Amino acid sequence: MAGEYNNMDMADQPAAIRPGEAFDTEIVAQFLKDHIPGLDGPFTVSQFPSGFSNLTYRIRIGRRDMVLRRAPLGTKAKSAHDMGREFRILKALHPIFPCAPSPLIYTDDPSIIGCPFYVMERIHGIILRKDLPPGMKLRPDDARRLCENLIDIQVQLHAIDYRQAGLEDFGRPEAYVNRQVDGWSRRYLAARTDDAPGLEAIMDWLHNNIPPAAVSGTIIHNDYKLDNVVLNPENPLEIIGVLDWEMATLGDPLMDLGNAMAYWVEKDDPDDLQAIRLMPTHIPGALTRKELVARYGMKSGRSVDNFDFYYCFGLFRLAVIAQQIYYRYYLGQTKDPRFKMLIGAVHNLGKAAGRIIGHADG
C-alpha cells in the first residue's frame, strides 16, 4: 500500500451553493429524468468550491451521482466556456481514453438554467489541492511515482490519433503556437486593469522566439495539472480521471506541457512562486520541472530542447487567465472573494516569466 491515507477524508467535497450561482432545481431534475434513463429518487444539488472558471455542481438523483458544468458569470473570452464543445470531446474521448469522464447529456435550451450546460458521471476519488489532505502521507518514492504517472497519462493523451477519434475538425494544429502567442497577448491587453503589470517585454520575447514548426499536432488538454486529475482512493498513485476539458483542442503538445509546468512550484522556487502554489508539488520526492520535462521527452520521443519558450509561454498564459478572472471581479461581475487576490498572482507570474527571458538571453 502506497504511503498512509484514509480515503474517507479525501474525496473532493461539495459545499453550499454560492450566492447568485443557484438554479431552479425542480426544472433541472425534471429535465434530467426526462433525458437520462433510469433516474429516480430525490434530487439534491451542491457546489464544488474549488476552481476559478466553469461553475461545477454535484447532482444526486437517488443513488446516481453526477456533475453539472456551466460557464461562469460575467464577461468571458469569446471562444471560452463552450459547454457543447466540451461535451463533444468527452463523448469522443471517453471510449478510447477512460480517464476522460463519461458525458451524459448536453443542452443549450435557455429555459432550463438560462445558459448551456452538460452533465457527466462523477468520478469518485481523491483530488489533491494545495497540500496533502489530513491523513494522507506519501513517501518520497510514492511522490515520485505519482509525478511519473502524471506525465505518462499526458503522453498517452498526446499519442491518441485525433482523426480516428473523429476530432479532426476540433482545432487547427497548423501555426498553433503563433496563434496562441498572438491571441493571449491580445487577451491580456483587453483585460488589463490599472493595477496590472506591464508584460510587453514578455509578449515581445515570445513573439520573437517562437520555435520552428517541427512538432505535429495532437489532442491537448490545455489545463493539465495535478488538481485536475482524480486519484484512485484505493491506490492514490493511480490516476483514474482527468477533469476540466474546457480548453482542450488540437495543437502543439509541448505547449500543453509548458502550460502544465507553469503550475508546478518546486520546493526551491523563489518566494513569488511559492506564494501562488496551488498543489503539493513541493513535497519530498516530487519531481522537478526539469525531471518532468525529461521524462516527457523520453516517453514521447519528442525533443524538448526549446522548452524555455514553452515554459515562459505557460507562465504568461497563466498570468492572462488570472487577469481575466480578476477583471470580472474588478468590474463587479462576480463577488467570489478568491478573485480579489488574483492580481498578486498576475504580478508574480510576470516576474517568473521575466526570469526565464533573462536566463534565455543570458
Task: Present the secondary structure layout.
Layout lengths: L24 H11 L7 E5 L7 E7 L2 E7 L12 H11 L9 E5 L2 H4 L3 E5 L18 H19 L17 H16 L8 H9 L9 E3 L8 E4 L2 E8 L6 E3 L1 H10 L8 H4 L14 H12 L6 H24 L11 H20 L1
Antiparallel strand pairs: 1-2, 2-3, 3-5, 4-5, 6-9, 7-8
What does it look like?
This protein has 362 residues and is α+β, with helices and mostly antiparallel strands. It has 2 domains: 115 residues, Phosphorylase Kinase, domain 1, CATH 3.30.200.20; 222 residues, Aminoglycoside phosphotransferase (APH), C-terminal lobe (Aminoglycoside 3'-phosphotransferase, Chain: A, domain 2, Alpha-Beta Complex). The chain is 39% helix and 13% strand. The protein contains 11 helices and 9 strands. A 5-stranded antiparallel β-sheet has the order 1-2-3-5-4, sandwiched between helices. Helix 4 crosses helix 9. The longest helix is centred in the C-terminal third of the chain and has 24 residues. The chain is globular, with a radius of gyration of 20 Å.
Short description:
By secondary structure, the protein is of the alpha+beta class.
- Sheet-strand content, in percent, reads 5-15%
Instruction: Return the structural class.
Output: alpha+beta
The beta-strand count equals: 9
The major sheet is characterized as:
5 strands, antiparallel
Segments where pLDDT lies below 50 for 5+ residues? none
Number of helices: 11
CATH superfamily of the largest domain: Aminoglycoside phosphotransferase (APH), C-terminal lobe
Q: Rg, please? A: 20 Å
Overall pLDDT? 91
Q: How much helical structure, as a percent, in the residues?
A: 25-40%
- End-to-end span in angstroms? 47 Å
From the spread of the alpha carbons, the general shape counts as: globular
CATH fold annotation of the largest domain: Aminoglycoside 3'-phosphotransferase, Chain: A, domain 2
